Amino acid sequence: MIAPGGGVGGGRGGWKGGVREEELHGALLRQIIYSLSVLVVEIPLGIALALSMPAKGWKASVVLVLVAISLLIPWNVVGTIWQIYGRTDIGLLGATLAYLGFDYSYTGNASDAWMTVLVMDVWHWTPLVALLCYAGLRSIPAAYYPAASIAGASKFAVFRYVQLPKMRGVLMIAVLLRFMDSFMIYTEPFVLTGGGPGNATTFLSQYLTQKAVGQFDLGPAAAFSLIYFLIILLLCFLLYNWMQRVGTADKESAHE
What we know:
Blueprint: H1 11-20, H2 22-52, H3 57-68, H4 75-85, H5 92-99, H6 110-138, H7 144-150, H8 155-166, H9 168-183, H10 187-192, H11 204-214, H12 218-255
């Protein structure tokens, strides 16, 4: 981290080399697209799953346990599961797609690899969003629903004006957690595709690891680790402030 001359991150050359690399730009672009895709898919899906879960009784307990199962699986095991699952000879997903006539190969086609990594993340982490949203829904006083029914509110109106505002806090936590975690993803795509084919699934964390461990290029790697941290910090700061402004604006409009 500290250069012989006293500079941090491999010196001025390390910073310049780290910022100007085209591979870094490509990994950053892939990472941003991937993280945004994760949010776009997992947040609505988690909300829909939470709304469909039973609220009381033994069924609620059973559903909660079933939903949370994927969260208990270690990251490297998740990658191995989907590595087998996507094989066209023995995997259920790969064999089914091949039977239906699709030329699917997550090891040879960049689009297939990208979609497989995305679907794997959705399968693994959407339950976290669902559980957070479920907790937010259960915190809504039961008296709100009869009042909305008496007022003639539709199901969508109840969701828009009762449930969604009450879930705002847990949704903010879910968005921040999923964004930070997806932006630092490493183990699952490394086990599943190794970053390939080519650099199709080489995200920022894997690019940094290859730079530091694989190529032993410690100067640019140290500089880029700081850049990586600042990128995550900045994006989370912007995202948090945007969500806070949206919540404040909605509260002001509701008072009016």
